[in-house]
Request: fold
Amino acid sequence: MSKALKIVMGITMLTGGIMAQKMTVHAAESNTRTGQAVRMNGTVSLASQVENNPAVKAAHYQVTQAVQALTMATTAVKTAMSDLQAAQTTLDAANKTLAKNQKIQTHMGVLKQAATDRHVKATKALDEQLATKKTSQTAVTTAQAAVTKSQAAVQVAQSNFDKDNSAANKVTLQTTQAKLETVQETLTAAQANLDKTNEHVMMAEEELANAKIEVSGTSRDFQMAQRDYDIVQPQAAVNQAKAAVTAKLQRVAGTQDQVVTAQRELSQAQAGLTTVRARTLATLTAAAEKPMTEKPVGERPVVSHSTGTSTSTNQSAAPQATPAKPTLNQSSSASVPTAQRVVTTQPRQATTVLRTTTSPAMAKPVTQQTVPTTATKTATLPQTGEQTNRVLTVLGFVLLAATSLFGFSKQQRRHKTTD
Reply:
């Protein structure tokens, strides 16, 4: 054997060993996953049975209805809150408009009242000045009369003094002249007072005229304010907005009560679902873990009513000795129908079926009763004693490849030697 052939065979055997080791590890992992899948199949099947239970489905439906009711109630609350906010916005706008109009009207009313007060005050002042003017005019008239009288007396005294230069006439003349000067001063003062009073009267008349103008203007402005800045309609709008806000508040309170009720009903539905699930799971688990004291249906003998013999219905299993069963033609010690329970085995569940036998006293023939079974999907699992050795398979392929390579190289050497 050449050196190259030995190297090739060594590499081939090394590769085969590595492949065999990897296939062994892969087989072990596959077996592990298969076992886990088999173990999980029962759990998934049990959970599926719990969820498919009619009581659990009914509880699920109640929870769904409660969730929908809570969602609708929450949506109603949001809608009511939105409507309340819109109504509150409308109320604020109406209050703002009403406040503005009331402020304008109040200001115009204040101006009008001030003008009215000014008019009243100017009228009163004019009346007072007119009365003072009248008094001053009377004083001027009286002073003028006194001056005229004194002037006449002075003329008489002067005439008497001119006729008689006596001392008595001289004293009379001087006295009348002094009195004339006094009444003239009085007249001058009365005239000055009258002039001053006339000025005051003119000022009072001017003030009264201005007050009248102001009263007229403010009255017109107040009327325009009442027309352009009406408070009747804004007040009605405010009242309407207040009523709308009150109604929206009541609506919000009602929807909030509906939310509380829906939450309570949802909690009750969820609690009921949890209880039903637990009860159903406990029932199925107890039924699945209950020890099988009787043989399954597939291994129980079937009684032949015509011959009275029993045959095994398990054709796939190895033949086993079946105990003798009393036939229906034999006499029985019981005179009433007896119930026999037949249990069918399925993965993690048990189905109980009642089958009755008839007393020999009854003359009617008894037909064989078939037991309904649930169709389940069977999985191909390793049987007892069955093994898959992938290492031997790989080694066989390696040896076959090495032998073929050895024969090929030997044939080549033979051809070289012949040549």
Notes: Residues 20 and 393 are 9 Å apart (CA to CA). The longest strand covers residues 338-346. The beta strands are 301-303, 310-312, 338-346, 349-357. The first helix runs from residue 3 to 52.
